[in-house]
Design brief:
Helix content is 51%, strand content 20%. It is of the alpha/beta class. The chain is globular, with a radius of gyration of 21 Å. The N and C termini lie far apart (64 Å). The chain binds ligand C2E and calcium ion (3 copies). This is EAL domain-containing protein.
């Protein structure tokens, strides 16, 4: 009836108003967070299963919100990307992660590498290469200690510019991983043209990998593809022994996931480096 439609409409608009207000509040809180540096970097270990060693860490940002506590990146990174705040946040993460890696190198963990997630908007910044190189210089790290994790949507968005920037990164020795590999909409052809060092098997393909026929097929294919292209391959989201057995049977020995360690504070990760992970 007309009445009902009217009510629904009313309900809907007031719902939207509330959302928009929340949105405005959220955005201003995010600006404040950048000013006040309310972010923290957590680190998740990447391990070589054969040696049991932690070979690297992935830097994962959190927002330590004064009232809400630790807010996960899924809640604010997409918005930060939309409004451009990903640029200062991303640079802060890059610098913080490199400084922390230097601290670990100084503690004697000299082979440890760090991986940092770079969003499309950040990658399009003309001065990203310069920023990264200055941070490496400031912190005294080698380019080979740093890996940038990019998603396939970066490649679709701006093919020529992306190719050029990637080549410059590779020429300077920085590694490039394709994150969430297989979940994007790009064609495989880019693997020929782009100077990629690593494929990260998306964790969705490892779900029930021992029983899910499609996932087994896809994960196997990605690992084989990486091996045939002489790229490094790492599996993310490893949570159980069945997944480990599967990965080892395919020759994929680099792993990352809750089984070995959740994203954790720098202090906690230092302890893990000292104690070692269980494999
Ligand atoms: P991602 O790069 O794919 O990071 C992996 C996500 O999977 C992390 O979520 C991590 O906590 C989670 N994870 C790791 N191991 C397991 C596991 O065994 N099981 C399950 N269920 N999950 C696991 P997180 O930290 O919430 O980050 C979410 C996403 O936010 C990241 O996905 C990345 O796209 C983005 N992100 C995080 N930090 C940054 C950053 O500094 N810059 C940018 N641009 N994006 C970031
Ligand atoms: Ca990542
Ligand atoms: Ca290294
Ligand atoms: Ca991922």
């Amino acid at each position: 009836s007309k009445e009902l439609t009217g009510n629904n409409y009313q309900f809907y608009t007031s719902g939207m108003d509330r959302q928009t207000l929340d949105g405005v509040k959220f955005v201003s809180a995010l600006y404040r967070a950048v000013d006040h540096q309310e972010f923290v970097i957590y680190y998740q270990p990447k391990i070589n299963y054969l040696t049991g060693e932690i070979t690297g860490v992935e830097a994962l940002v959190r927002w330590n919100h004064p009232e809400r506590g630790m807010v996960l990146p899924g809640e604010f990174i997409p918005i930060a990307e939309e409004i451009g705040l990903i640029i200062p946040i991303g640079e802060w993460v890059l610098r913080g992660a490199c400084e922390q890696l230097k601290t670990w190198h100084n503690l004697g963990f000299k082979d440890l590498d760090v991986s940092v997630n770079i969003s499309a908007r950040q990658f399009e910044q003309r001065n990203l290469l310069h920023t990264v190189n200055s941070i490496l210089e400031e912190t005294g790290l080698s380019p080979g200690d740093l890996e940038l994790e990019l998603t396939e949507n970066i490649i679709i968005k701006n093919t020529e510019g992306t190719l050029k920037t990637m080549e410059q990164f590779r020429e300077s020795g920085i590694k490039i991983a394709i994150d969430d590999f297989g979940t994007g909409f790009s064609s495989l052809g880019y693997l020929k043209r782009f100077p990629i060092t690593t494929l990260k098997v998306d964790r969705s393909f490892l779900k029930d990998v021992d029983s899910d026929y499609e996932n087994t097929a896809i994960a196997t294919t990605i690992i084989t593809l990486a091996q045939n292209l002489k790229l490094e391959v790492i599996a993310e989201g490893v949570e159980n022994q069945a997944q480990i057995d599967f990965l080892l049977s395919k020759g994929c020995t680099s792993m990352q996931g809750y089984y070995f360690g959740k994203p954790q504070s720098a202090e906690q990760l230092t302890n893990l480096l000292l104690l070692g992970v269980k494999t």
